[in-house]
Amino acid sequence: MPDLSGIVKAYDIRGVVGEQLDAALVRDFGAAFALLIKPEAPSVVIGHDMRDSSPSLAAAFADGVTSQGLDVVSIGLASTDQLYFASGSLNLPGAMFTASHNPAKYNGIKLCRAGASPVGQDTGLAEIRDTVEQGVPGFEGQRGTVTERDVLADYAAYLRKLVDLSGSRPLKVVVDAGNGMGGHTVPTVFAGLPIEIVPMYFELDGSFPNHEANPLDPANIVDLQAKVREVGADAGIAFDGDADRCFIVDERGEPVSPSAITALVAVRELAKDPGGTIIHNLITSKGVPEIVAEHGGKPVRTRVGHSFIKAEMARTGAIFGGEHSAHYYFRDFWRADTGMLAALHVLAALGEQSGPLSELTSAYSRYAASGEINSTVDDQVAKMMAVKDTFGARSGVEIDELDGLTVQLPGGAWFNLRPSNTEPLLRLNVEAANAEAVQGLVDEVLAIIRS
Which residues form the signal peptide (predicted)? Predict the structure, then answer.
């Protein structure tokens, strides 16, 4: 039996094309997915990004689905949140072919049940892996059919219905699509709005010739920052490769933290639904729950990762959720993540008032943060224990282990240290009152980890 544990991750399937993923294996994944969801739905909706390998892999997956008697609705080129829209609006399970921000040699599959409900290790992905490893059983009945359907215009109209920009003052916005799917969706979503788009790298190119499509890496937003300053734009937006995440820079070209965006969007959602629940993961700024509570909302803290966020949103009936990684989840979008909808909220908030974006977002940025700092270690558990022992011995320190190690210090500073699930890394995030306090705490923790 093949061992697929290296490519079947916690939330998706991902690997190097030609080495770990090929059409034959993907066909088996399609057939196994069909077996999983056959009792629930008659069809599967499939979309793909702009990587060279994506159309053929999507077709192989469709072949696997139809070989088990289910039909396929192919939406062709799509962002991941466009696939979620199709899954939600058509009430069908879905498969999206993308490796998100990973380099060009990678590809992968994100799966969901009808209504964009996530499929992860504990909700079907392990079962799919086992089926493929053990050999997909044949099907003697009639094959399914494949039909094509373009949902881009419907997706754009749905987003514009959720966020009204018709009354916005005119804005100039630089958008860096990173040669990813933002170049496909942005022109349609923003058509007719009072927003002048200055496009960067809208050409769909899965080789990513300009920079990696990962806006959380500061090196990948340098061009966007420069262009915003050059053209005197009101804001800049960078999308990742499959355009489900967005990253914002202000009129000065300065990055706006995803925590500040989470707080801003949360306040807007609470204005529509007073008293609603807002989900935030434990690495977002503590300013997020503070601001949510001040606006009458109920903040709920959860682990990092979209499956935890979506499960908690379902459990609590939350109206919105945000993560430090620039994933934003909306109840009105089937609890799925959509960077495009978050971007529209930011631009609507900006367009409703006369001040610059830096002034608007400053109200949502209360503390200094380190960002995520990775350290390669030989023994994750031993280093975590060393940090826990060091800080746990101090008076007034509070420690919890909801996700890794979160240490709350007297005076308000805190840090979280988490092990990577796939690499020998520890990930450190620190927040404190000012940059000096952040650096001091970073130095202290890293001295223990890297000793």
Answer: none
